[in-house]
Prior knowledge:
Blueprint: E1 2-7, H1 10-13, H2 20-27, E2 32-37, E3 50-52, E4 60-62, H3 64-77, E5 82-92, H4 95-101, E6 106-111, H5 119-124, E7 128-131, H6 141-152, E8 185-186, E9 189-190, H7 200-218
Parallel strand pairs: 1-2, 1-6, 5-6, 5-7
Antiparallel strand pairs: 3-4, 8-9
The structure holds 6-chloroguanine.
Amino acid sequence: MRIDIITVLPELLKSPFEASILKRAIEKNLVEVHFHNLRDYSLGNYKQVDDYQFGGGAGMVLMVEPIDKCISKLKKEREYDDVIYMTPDGDTLNQGISNEVSLKKNLIILCGHYKGVDQRVRDLFITREISIGDYVLSGGELAAAVLCDSIIRLLPGVLNDETSALTDSFQDNLLAPPVYTRPSDYKGLKVPEILLSGDFPKIEKWREEQAMERTTKLRPDLLK
Ligand code: 6GU
């Protein structure tokens, strides 16, 4: 997979890719992530990428020309499966969308900023619009990092234990069961006996029951 991220604030976005699982995925060549600073595609001497909105109103709007220049250059180099725009009015991200996007080969992710982008960017280039929830962030960068994390961890070979992603919360629309590690008794709080029994079919059944119980209690909406 290759991801090209277009942003006015690359520095806000880079650090999640420089640690832990994402860093390892990049080092193992399981994914390539490239950052494109929109200012490098600005027109004129002032490196302008945004302007006041027609019709008046507060807030700046990202201009169509620099974004066109950047996306068109990338598209000349390779084919893209999707051009995703991160915006609070997009489809709310969930595990199903992450699973689907993780199967793509080449992606462009455009981060919105200020009041957003000129509508013509959306009309011309964007194939998919994604939000990460019903609240407003200062820009799409942190949302893009969330999206990238959720898809990169699904790529084959990224997680150590390949079955690990399959047992995550949400993969089967259920919350994950509780987990424990040593010690088996901490200040009188004991690990459920069954987990120490070595009876794996029984343990599996217990985990399923716990997942169902947790979901019923905490997220009944997932069961509908
Ligand atoms: Cl994708 N962008 C912004 N600016 N705010 C958000 C969001 C995205 N998703 C939720 N809130």
